[in-house]
Amino acid sequence: MEEKEQNAGVAVTVRSVSPYDAEAIADIYNEYVLNTTISFETEALTVEAMRSRISGLACKYPYFVAERDGRVAGYCYAHEWKERAAYGRTWETTVYVAPGHKHCHIGEMLMERLIEECRRLGCHVLIACITGDNESSIAFHRRLGFEQVSRFREVGFKFGRYLDVVDYELSL
């Protein structure tokens, strides 16, 4: 199912991910991996590795991309939060928007669709794990109704510094 919305005069389509999106998703993600502390990965992913991740997740959980001007401008998905069976109705969310498409409400469009689909599939709680100094992501998740439930101090190390992680939760 596709969902279209006008965004700054340009149609944005939110749709389910396809294996053919792997290159565009890898390009978006690798920008964050290589140049920010938003992702705690430190090595760029190949297109093949991203395609493998997509196929592993999309067969079990909702995974969406947003297209603007015919190009993938962002993506989001839910995935397992913890592996024990009792956590099965609690999922973690991930959302990334291409740098050239920030502040165009693409993240909101993606996450609103993801939240709706997670609710439909019986998920009870969504968790967003965010780098502690990522104020824009924290504000974004708060606008969506997520509330902070934890702070882990200096659990990550990237670009020569220790980083906190905060968890935000949304009950569905």
Mean pLDDT: 94
Give the low-confidence spans: none
Named at the architecture level, the CATH assignment is 3-Layer(aba) Sandwich
Distance between the termini: 22 Å
Task: Tell me roughly what share of residues is in helical segments.
Answer: 25-40%
Which class in CATH terms?
Alpha Beta
Radius of gyration: 16 Å
Kindly report the name of the CATH homologous superfamily: Gcn5-related N-acetyltransferase (GNAT)
Descriptive tags:
Aminopeptidase; single chain; eight-stranded mixed beta sheet; alpha+beta; 8 strands
Give a short summary of the structure.
With 172 residues, this protein is α+β, with helices and mostly antiparallel strands. It is built from four helices and eight strands.
Description:
With 172 residues, the chain is α+β, with helices and mostly antiparallel strands. The protein contains four helices and eight strands; from the N terminus they run ββααβββαβαββ. The protein has an eight-stranded mixed β-sheet with strand order 1-2-3-4-5-6-8-7, sandwiched between helices. The longest helix is centred in the middle third of the chain and has 15 residues. The two termini are 22 Å apart.
